[in-house]
Amino acid sequence: MYVERKQDLSVYYFIDKVFTDAGATNINIVDGFPTGELVLPTVAIDNDFLTTRYFELGNRRRLDIRTWYIDIFTENKSRRDEFAYLIKNEVQNKIPVYDYDEGFPPPTPTQIGVLDVMEISMRPIRVLPELVSTLYWRAQVKIIAYYEAI
């Protein structure tokens, strides 16, 4: 499995653990943007840009810079904001990246690196009632991080 896919899975399981540790129950956490019937509340994690940049002068080593969008769908504004702030506060620390080639999911995976978050942004997304049959509240948290192997 590519290390990039291990990063994607690590972000997914990190967000899942954030909500479990916070005692939040009955939250639908999905890998990728939801395409079927939307069940509220849902938190969807999807990767986006992957950019490589030279890291050191005189060296061919590159730094992988990754972007993830975490979409939040809830039944009210208060819960939407609570979920967004929870995610924003938790991803400020490094996100551990695990080796999922050891078996899936392993009971105690080996940590192979971290995602060091460089930028976090959160924005509410307005959903117009005339465009959807069920009114819901939505926000998006965007994280930009670079990978450090350990």
Percent in strands: 35-45%
- Mean pLDDT comes to 89
CATH architecture: 2-Layer Sandwich
CATH topology: STM4215-like
Sketch the major β-sheet.
6 strands, mixed
Cα-to-Cα separation, first versus last residue: 18 Å
Q: Segments where pLDDT lies below 50 for 5+ residues?
A: none
Overall structural domain count = 1
Order of helices and strands: HEEEHEEE
Q: Report the helical percentage.
A: 10-25%
Beta strand count: 6
SSE class: alpha+beta
For the largest sheet, list the strands in their spatial order: 1-2-3-6-5-4
Shape: globular
The first-level CATH class name? Alpha Beta
List the SSEs and their pairings.
Blueprint: H1 3-21, E1 28-31, E2 42-54, E3 62-74, H2 77-90, E4 95-98, E5 111-125, E6 137-149
Parallel strand pairs: 1-2
Antiparallel strand pairs: 2-3, 3-6, 4-5, 5-6
Could you walk me through the main structural features you see in this protein, from its secondary elements to its overall organization?
The chain is an alpha+beta fold and 150 residues long. Helices cover 22% and strands 41% of the residues. The chain has two helices and six strands. The chain has helices at residues 3-21, 77-90; strands at 28-31, 42-54, 62-74, 95-98, 111-125, 137-149. Strands 1-2-3-6-5-4 form a six-stranded mixed beta sheet. It starts with a helix and ends with a strand.
